C-alpha cells in the first residue's frame, strides 16, 4: 500500500518523531574534523592547471587582438583555484603590463568588471 495515494484526511497524524538530532550529537563535538573532511572532498574534485602550447597561446593572442579591434564579445574559459570557469565578456582592455584581461560580463550590470590573469586563461572564442 502506497501512503502517497491515501487522502490526507485518512492518514494517521500521530507519527512518532524519533530521536531527531540527538543521534548526530557525538559527531558535532569535533568541528575541525568536519572542516577537514569537507576540504578533502573539495580537493578530490579539483583539477590541475592545464599547460598550453605556444601555438595555442599565439592563436588566443590573435583572437584577443581581433576582438578588441572589432569591439566584439568573447567567451573566456579560465582556471581558478582548481576549477574551470567560463564567462562571456565584452572585452574592454588587454593590459599587457599587468598581464590581465579586463571585461564586462554580458549577463550582469554595466558597472561590474572582471579581471582575468593571462596565466589563468585556457581558451578564448569570439561570440
TrEMBL record:
InterPro entries: YolD (IPR014962). It comes from the Bacteria. This is YolD-like family protein. It comes from Salinicoccus hispanicus. The lineage of its organism: Bacteria, Bacillati, Bacillota, Bacilli, Bacillales.
Amino acid at each position: 500500500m502506497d501512503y502517497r495515494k491515501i487522502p490526507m484526511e485518512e492518514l494517521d497524524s500521530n507519527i512518532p518523531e524519533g530521536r531527531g538530532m540527538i543521534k548526530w550529537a557525538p559527531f558535532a563535538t569535533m568541528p575541525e574534523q568536519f572542516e577537514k573532511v569537507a576540504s578533502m572532498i573539495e580537493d578530490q574534485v579539483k583539477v590541475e592547471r592545464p599547460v598550453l602550447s605556444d601555438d595555442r597561446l599565439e592563436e588566443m593572442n590573435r583572437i584577443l587582438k581581433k576582438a578588441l579591434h572589432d569591439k566584439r564579445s568573447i567567451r573566456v574559459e579560465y582556471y581558478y583555484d582548481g576549477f574551470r570557469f567560463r564567462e562571456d565578456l565584452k572585452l574592454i582592455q588587454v593590459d599587457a603590463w599587468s598581464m590581465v584581461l579586463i571585461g564586462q560580463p554580458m549577463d550582469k550590470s554595466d558597472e561590474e568588471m572582471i579581471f582575468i590573469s593571462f596565466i589563468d586563461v585556457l581558451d578564448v572564442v569570439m561570440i
